Amino acid sequence: MNRAIKLAGKGYSVIPLVGDTSAGEPKKPTIKWRAFQRRIPERRELEALFDDRAGALAVICGRVSQLLVIDFDDHLRYQRFCRHLPQYAESYTVKTRRGFHVYFRTQEKVPTHQFDGGDIKSEKSYVVAAGSRIAGFIYKVVRRIEAMLLDKDGVEALLNYFHVRRSSVNGSMAVKQSSSDVDIGLLYQRLSASVGRNNALYRCASLGIRQGMTWGEIEKALLRRHAVNMGKVGHKTESFANRLAEARRTIASAVRRGVQDGEQGEGIANTVRERLLQAQGSSVTARLLDIMGMAGWQAESYFCMRDAIELCKTYGLNRKSVMGALTGEQCSYNGRHIISRRYVEYLDIGGLNLGKRGRPVQLVFQVPSAGRLLGVLNVRWCPSDPLSKADLASKHAYRRALHREYVKRLSPQAPMSVLASRLGLNARTLRRYNAQLGVHVCERIGRFTLTWETLKSLPRRERDGAKNQTPGYWLAIGEGARFPAWRHIGAALLRRGGDAVEVCVRRASVMSLGKPNARSVVYESLSVEAFMRLRILRESGVGRGSLFSGLRGLAEKASARVARARYEKLPLQYDTVPNHIAEDKIAETIRGYLFAEDGMGAEVRRPARRGVAYRMLKQYGEGNVYLALRDSFSELMSAMAQHAFRLGEEGAGMGLLVRSMA
Predict the structure, then answer these.
(1) Which of 13, 140, 457, 631 is most deeply buried (CB count within 10 A of its CB)?
(2) End-to-end alpha-carbon separation of the chain, Å?
(3) Is 340 within 8 Å of 300 (Cβ atoms)?
């Protein structure tokens, strides 16, 4: 009763609630309270109203009390509000069962409505006052300061944080970041006394990011203030240099978080762009998200399809593409909507859910935050390359701009196919982009001299293999002549003699901007072992990231090839038979056989036994008898490589596989 009289004396219209005297509806008024939406009850009325039925107290919002209350349903939504709008968070605040009530005084008429995460309490509504007990919980004041007074601009800026508002030009909804000229230095002085030095510094730095301030401007406004602020009495004493370093770290953290959350209106992260381009084969969704960021649409705010269509007209994205990104084939990834949606019945002119007032709308969408995009697409955050409005005009302009910024930033040294797959393209299209952008491409070719000792590093040509090409490597003589790098061709060139034979391998090209559009070639020395590794990569058809998973299959393929038909042809003589063939007691060797050519050109095969070898030499003569011995060394190396892969020793398996293919 005394609290009700005290609140009425401050200009609040109050009414009694049932409270815990009724377990079913503790927030139900005990009286008909419509009359008190227009006037404040007098003292004698309060004495009659708050009888034995009253178990709690409520304050009526709206113009009668000049009161606007933000009702947050959970702690996270309230903390986000405090972080993004710290200048409004410093007002009278009450802790509720689930969240918080933040009080503001204003003479503006604001309809009561909902937002994502709470309610705006104003006309024709009330809130439970502090000190009341509801369902066993006592509402407590957590910020005992005067409620902030808001003018018309302040109310509009506050509501724009939670909602979509109409543009005064064409009446369509557009999400805008509330403009604010808050002095973050003075705000820090006020906040530090109530929330602490570090919390105040972080909030003010985050606010500076959203106001468009640069990193240097934020440090200029806050660094010295924080360094000279000694904090509360009894706080640990720190030197000026320590406090200055602490301030720099806190500001840097706030700036990085602000960039990651997209609070500067920048484009989406490069990882998000690449994942959308690769997964969808279309640039529509990525362009739409970049257009929203370029237009300054606030994350987690709502818009309808017409607003997106009208906005994208000026950026070259047509109606059909926008509909496809919002409700068509490009709207989801792995079963989850990229741009979340919400069904409502009606929207008023401010874009708020108000029952049956306003125009009917079936579906609204929510501008995705950076965190949602990273979670849905399962990628890590990275900075965003800046784009211009002209870069969003078409799919080719968009991909070409992403490639331009990537080359400008990194001067990458990577295969053309890898750079093309990054944007969902083929290498031919990327070469056309290079020509249009004036990208300087420096080709790198590794080479070594072919000898009889290094001949085994070249592959044997399979029956079903391509006859006239080897993937990414070739044999060269002099400046012009090129041949496929098959082993039998290399042997023929070595027998012919003459100029040195070079084994050439195409390495990853280096790209850069700011130079004439010309191609240059740089030759580098290459070891035989490095060539074998590159050859295995290309024959396996896997990328560097999935190398070892592909090598297991390649080891099995090599082993099967050895088992099919790899035999070594050894000429026999009388004195070399004991070195190659076991004693006569062994009936037959499994690893090979003897063969000879008779006078008619036919091949005669015999078991690989020592006595048989001597008889064949006597019959056919030395130089005409051969031992066909299976290449047991290569087979053994392949088997050992498979075993190493099974044990998870990829490095050892790689080395053994290189030796087996030599």
Answers:
(1) 13
(2) 96
(3) no
Count CB-CB contacts under 10 A for residue 101.
25
**Sequence-ordered list of residues with C-beta below 8 angstroms from that of 521, at least 6 positions apart, any chain:** 442, 443, 445
pLDDT digits (tens, 9 = 90+) for 16-59: 988 887 767 888 888 888 889 888 988 888 888 888 788 889 99
pLDDT mean over 479-494: 86
Are 588 and 608 in contact by the 8 Å Cβ rule? The answer is: yes
Q: What is the pLDDT of residues 502-535, one digit of tens each?
A: 999 888 888 888 665 556 888 888 888 888 877 7
The answer for 602, left when phi > 0, alpha when psi is -120 to 50, beta otherwise, is beta
What is the sign, positive or negative, of the torsion defined by CA atoms of 320, 325, 330, 331? negative
Whole-angstrom distance, CA of residue 542 vs CA of residue 115: 50
> C-alpha 426: how far from its chain's center?
22
pLDDT reported for residue 289: 93
- Residue recorded with tokens 């949606």: 341
d(CA 531, CA 544): 15
Which position has the token pair 């929207």?
347
Handedness of CA 565, 635, 638, 504 (dihedral sign): negative
Q: Which of the 8 DSSP states describes residue 455?
A: G
Domains of the chain, by residue range, sit at 2-162, 184-260, 270-405, 438-539, 547-564+635-661, 567-630
Range 2-162 has CATH code 2.40.160: no
Contact by Cβ (8 Å): 602, 574: no
Higher pLDDT, 180 or 596: 596
